[in-house]
Structures are given as C-alpha cells and as structure tokens.
Amino acid sequence: MGIQITPSMLASDFANLEAEAARIGSADWLHMDVMDNHFVPNLTLGAPVIEALAKVAKQPIDAHLMIEDPDRWAPEYVEAGAGSITFHVEAAAAPIRLAREIRAKGARASMALKPATPIEPYADMLPELDMVLIMTVEPGFGGQKFLDVCLPKIRRTRDLIDRHGGDIWLQVDGGVSVETIERCADAGADVFVAGSAVFGADDPDDMVAQLRALGSRAGRHAH
Ligand code: DX5
Ligand code: ZN
Q1: What gap in Å lies between CA 172 and CA 192, rounded to an integer?
Q2: Annotated catalytic residue 130
Q3: Which of 137, 147, 172 to mutate to test the pocket of ligand 1 (most atoms within 8 A of CB)?
Q4: 142 CB within 6 A, ligand 1
Q5: pLDDT tens digit string along 190-213?
Q6: Is 162 part of the annotated catalytic residue set?
Q7: What is the pLDDT of residue 2?
Q8: What mean pLDDT is predicted for residues 109-135?
Q9: Probe ligand 1: pick from 33, 36, 110, max atoms within 8 Å of CB?
Q10: What mean pLDDT comes out for the span 74-93?
Q11: Ligand 1 pocket, 33 CB below 6 A?
C-alpha cells in the first residue's frame, strides 16, 4: 500500500459537502471530524451528516471521533456508512472491546493519540487495529501549527508496527502541508490528513497530488 491522502472536510464548505468532495476526486478518503464540545472544546457534526455524505461521495469516509464515550457512539458511525472509525484512546473505556466491535460491524478500527499521549502502553493492542492516528496538533480546530514534538512518537509507532508485522496504517493529522508532510513521511507515516492545506489551495485536487508526491518521495517505504 502506498501513501494515502485524506483531506479534512472541516476546512471545506459545509453548505456544499457533496460538491466539495467532488473537487478532490483524487483523495483516497474523506476525513470527517466529529467533535462533541466535551472531549474537545468545539462542536462540529455527527452521524446524520456522515450518512448523508456517504450516500453521495465516491470516496469512503474516514470518521475521526473526538468525543466522550466512543464505546457507546462509535458503532453508530459504522451504520452511518463510514469505512474507517477512529476513536481516541483517552476517551475509550474498553478500547480492545471497542476495536473488535467496529471490525465486527465491518469497518476499519483505528485508535488516535493526542500529542501528549504515549504509544508504548498500547503496543500490545496493535493486532486489534487497522490504523493508528498520531495527532500533530491538539485536537479541536483546523488551521493550527504542526507540532514537531510529535515526530519521535511517529517514528516509535512505525517501529512498533514494523515489529508487529501486520498491515497497520499510520495516520497523522494536524498542520500537515507541503511544509511538514515530508517530516511525517520520513518518520514513517503513510496516511496524511490535511484540511486547511487542501481546501485553502486554489486547486484542492492539485494540492492532493502535490502532497502525495512529496509524501511518496520522502516516505520510508518510498520507491
Ligand atoms: C483537528 C482535526 C483535524 C483538522 C486538521 O482536531 O482532527 O482533522 O481538520 O486541520 P488542518 O489540516 O488545517 O490542521
Ligand atoms: Zn481529524
């Protein structure tokens, strides 16, 4: 699997989600940021919006749940049509049970870590996961500055994944742009969320292509 670009729709025009998804035809996934004003100090969208977009978009939905009690709510997002569900481990009461439930319902299971959350306590959980998301900003808002302090954790997570040997994707989210994507790819990330970089560009689909080219060239698995 090469690298993947998953634009964050948080930076798109919420009045025209179908048209915005069509503007980024070469994107691999549509990243949808669900915020509940409890886990993070912001409120965005929920399962009904994801269900509506999943019906009309040609790309699959990558749902990033920045919510309390994902154990209770995450299954609803599989039913809404998301192909990948990311829950925050800081909020999950029973992350292994939750990952198994997401997979059993037919979606990819992914676990997110805030910038100050270490990966090491969860190393034994990797076989339960299809993706790990390392946040490179504090979750809650688009347009924040990339936190370089997260790069060593991306590297250590890549090493753990390689040692485990499974096909687990490593996603980064927050401040990813033409300025920062190479650092992330070099550290071992292979799935890149970008919101303001993509939708702030004159040609969003061309920006997806630029990010893909930079990420592929820099990636540890580049060829
Ligand atoms: C932040 C969200 C991100 C956000 C990224 O909490 O999880 O997905 O949309 O936006 P940019 O790429 O602008 O940092
Ligand atoms: Zn996100």
Answers
A1: 5
A2: no
A3: 137
A4: yes
A5: 999 999 999 999 999 999 999 999
A6: no
A7: 87
A8: 98
A9: 33
A10: 98
A11: yes
* 213 Cα–ligand 2 center, Å: 22
Q: Give the chain as a DSSP string.
A: ---EEEEBGGGS-GGGHHHHHHHTTT-S-EEEEEEBSSSSS-B---HHHHHHHHHH-SSPEEEEEE-S-HHHHHHHHHHTT-SEEEEETTT-SSHHHHHHHHHHTTSEEEEEE-TT--SGGGGGGGGG-SEEEEESS-TT-SSPPP-GGGHHHHHHHHHHHHHH-S--EEEEESS-STTTHHHHHHHT--EEEESHHHHTSSSHHHHHHHHHHHHHHHSTT--
Q: Indicate if ligand 1 lies below 6 Å from the C-beta of 10.
A: yes
Q: Which position among 28, 33, 36, 190 bears the catalytic label?
A: 33
The Cα 84–Cα 111 span in angstroms is 10
Atom 6, ligand 1: residue with shortest CA distance: 139
Report the amino acid identity of residue 4. Answer: Q
pTM of the model: 0.97
What is the percent of the chain where pLDDT is above 70?
98
pLDDT, tens digit (0-9, with 9 covering 90-100), for 175-190: 999 999 999 999 999 9
